[in-house]
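[scheduler] slot 2 assigned
[scheduler] job type: sequence-to-structure, two independent chains
[scheduler] chain ordering preserved from manifest
[runner] begin chain α
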Amino acid sequence: MISPLQLTNDQIAATLRARMRRETARRRVEQPIEEIDSLIEECEELLLLGRKRVPLSMESRLRLLAGRCPAAAGEQLHAGVTIVHLMDELFGLQEELLGQRIDRGAYPDPDEPD
């Protein structure tokens, strides 16, 4: 027979494990969004400096982002392209990730058929 104290401890442990799983899943989405924000900010600064192309020094960060983020698989995240092109790719990826982060059912699109 399981004691009430053991049952309570098991429930607490299960709740903590569930919370840790949710937090890990949330961070898996949040980290790439934060990295994308940083890259977009850096691209904006480069544009203000009059640069036209993404410097090769950003290639490793772009590869790291693509490796961490399955949603980036179809995106063209490369250095050497125009900054505007990379920013378009990053904004598209960010939009997709933000869509995963919220419950779309809570905010139905009025233009989308049921």
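[runner] end chain α
[runner] begin chain β
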Amino acid sequence: MRILRFTLIVLLLFVAHAAMGEKKRAAPQTAKDLVGVWIGFDQDDLTFTRLELRADSTGYCARVSPGNTSLHNYGVQVYRIDKWRVDGGNVILNLTPISSNAEPVYLRGRLGGIASLNLEIGSLNKKWKLRLVLNPESRIQASNRETKEAIDAVRK
């Protein structure tokens, strides 16, 4: 009887562990999921990027260095996104410089985890390239607000 009870308990624990370990896979992102505003910094933290993707496969991209760096003096570089698309897990964007300080660049990459874009930006003459990870602006704002409120609450 004890062996049967022990076996039953072990079996139940095994089933419970297997059920907890089973994770639902997120559905792959589609072009529709990418519509909106994406923000983040390049790998060197010297340039902030704002990417606005519209449902009609156009949009805008703007880049600027933080105000506490000498690179900030170059100003904001603005690009029009003539067309963007998702091909499998790849994101391809065709950019046209709009501001006078914006050089011709490419921007492409892959869909990241649940809600990120892992991109590479570089000059068309192949002199430089950088990686950047962009996240939905709303996700950053919500997390920032919640963490700020939590800290403010414990300060009181």
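[runner] end chain β
[qc] chain β: Strands lie at 36-41, 48-53, 59-64, 77-87, 90-97, 105-111, 117-123, 129-136.
[scheduler] slot 2 released
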